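Protocol step 4 of 6.
Sequence for Recombinase family protein (Actinocorallia libanotica) entered exactly as in the expression construct, tag removed. Do not edit the line below.
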Amino acid sequence: MQPAPHAPAAYTNTVRIGYARVSGRTQDHQMQLDALAGAVLETLKPGDTLVIYKPDRIARSMKELLVLLEDELHARQVNLEVLTGICAGTHRPNGQSIADKMLFMVAAMAAEMERELIHERTMDGLAAAAAQGRYGGWPAKVDHDTLAIARARQACGESVTAIARHLSIGRSTLYRALAQEAEADATAQS
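Step 5 output, structure tokens:
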């Protein structure tokens, strides 16, 4: 972005906007950090500000956050701005007193502790529900009655695609249910 012709020299900073997030089935945090490093950190120049929604978008722990802040951002004279949460605010490499740094570290540690407490409560809740026979997730799309209808229609020569359309379920869902039933029958006969 070029500065306006009449803009004073002090206002000629370039604005770069980007977004880096990798979500996969494994939710591999290292893969996310590598994508962040490749897509964002390499493009930042001294004086730029990396803006994030909240600290867990770039670090999973207080240690990771501090290493990123000191070794990556502050070493390259890059500011960090956190938009929400307990660590919200702009963190500059040379503009913070020791008290500001300490407050940031305490806030980040509190946020990490809160995240761990939420995780523990969630795990406790899931364990309690499992003990009562309740499990999370979507209810099964294909119950025994639906599977019986599908088998009967398939025995009459109807295609799986037509059966799935008639039952208002996905073709792959029906294939999977039929395969699971066949596997269960084979196991029961063994």
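Step 6, annotate. Residues 1-11 have pLDDT under 50 and may be disordered.
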